[in-house]
Description:
This protein has ten helices and eleven strands.
Amino acid sequence: MSRVRARASxxxxxxxxxxxxxxxxxRYKLLAPYVPELxxxxxxxxxxxxxxxxxxxxxxxxxxxxxxxxIKVGFFLDHYEINSENKILISGKNLKxxxxxxxxxxxxxxxxCAYPECCIEKFVTHKEWTHPLxxxxxxxxxxxxxxxxxxxxxLRTSPFHLYKHFPCGLDCEKSILFTKxxxxxxxxxxxxxxxxxxxxxxxxxxxxxxxxxxxxxxGEIKDGxxxxxxxxxxxxxxxxxxxxxxxxxxxxxxFSDVIEAGASADELILDDKRLTFQAAGRKVKxxxxxxxxxxxxxxxx
Length: 301
């Protein structure tokens, strides 16, 4: 049995992570999740960034806002459709030479954004992948041997995520080198953002194999015990559940049950078959793990 205990202190309804994320979204709006990537472009670590916007009535308005931003800071913007998605490309150089009809467009975009070659190769050779950041996170956790906090994959829609490409592994040396260089640049450019990135990523995570989401704990594991002040997660699976190819409808309630129990307990015990939540030594709730899901605790350091 793998036994991980978590003892909580003062509970608050809104986590420090949620408050910080809200502040960045107020300040940067659509660009909030891309602040680290924009800093990377400014520093020459990235040559372009990609965004995905849904097909909706407000698309033209959002595209207009992004164009105004690019004109203001001297970036170039274009957009294209691939796999029924609206892709926005922001670059530091003119985009006129791009062949948008190229059958190898995804590879071309990876090179333009300066993603690691090994990661581009893996991504473009897996044509069967659909929404890999939702459906293939289990593979990343299973196949990686080390878990540096700079490669934490669970905060990807927040301003505290250091990379936007799908890595060939969480132990990818080139990806780790990029994220560490970027973190050092952010430390000089924006010390507040640097502090938030470190504290929100350098933490244990509970992976339930539901929509690629990890439940983070603001604390640390020591002597088999996880002491924490908050649990938090990037987004609710309900917003992306239709994109999952591995989850059942019942997993929505399962996720909610885990969050509710975790918020009211001060101890977590995880074995191969179930999660058991306790408060002051008394069981709050025990939740069985479906055989089709792979649950685990990962400590990002």
